[in-house]
Structure of Glutathione S-transferase:
Amino acid sequence: MKLVIANKNYSSWSLRAWLALRAVGQPFEEVRVLLDQPDTPAQILAHSPSGRVPCLIDEDLTVWDSLAIIETLAERFPQLWPETVAERAHARAICAEMHSGFTALRSQMPMNIRRALPGRGRTPASEADIARIVAIWEDCRRRYGARGPYLFGAFSAADAMYAPVCFRFMSYAVTPSGAAGAYLANMLAHPAMREWQAGALAETEIVPADELPE
Ligand SMILES: N[C@@H](CCC(=O)N[C@@H](CS)C(=O)NCC(=O)O)C(=O)O
């Protein structure tokens, strides 16, 4: 399998698919296309018909879009979703909510693992997104927390989908208390999260569109 991703410092969508692959233990070749270069569109289009990454290539299968990649992986690795119908429905609902929502958080507090930006990007809309995410995490931990340290106990697609928020909370110093804070700490300590973070810290490229002004 081959996963095409973008800069680890900035590419929140790439992180989701990459973590799902790490979570199932599937070896894969990582192809990194740098954002904001003159040839970026052509480089991405050489792999991904949408012109966006991540894109998974598995023999004759090409899958673009993070959630589609996770669903495709889950056909081979069903452990990516929780065990019961009700829990899978819950997990899918919060993944879809992340995939199509939280636009204020995403635009006002872009993922930027290398930078500490405490307190930046806070507006009523991004604060509302943060409050909803904390409520989602608290609800999951209350219902499934006894089974393990992640949203549905064991690491699942839901954790992969919320992982970029964890790096945002780290950079922008969003510090939820209680169960949500403990979940955030668990995620930031996850070996694959640390591996991705080390990759981001080793990068030097700057993408101005994803940088908040000094
Ligand atoms: N909904 C898509 C979003 C993918 C996306 O927007 N990817 C960005 C990088 S994080 C991209 O490919 N940008 C191309 C560019 O800026 O040229 C997904 O879930 O994969």
Q: What stands out?
A: The mean pLDDT is 97. The pocket of glutathione is lined by residues 6, 11-14, 35, 40-41, 44, 52-54, 65-67 (CB under 6 Å). The longest helix spans residues 124-144. Strands lie at 2-5, 29-32, 55-58, 61-64.
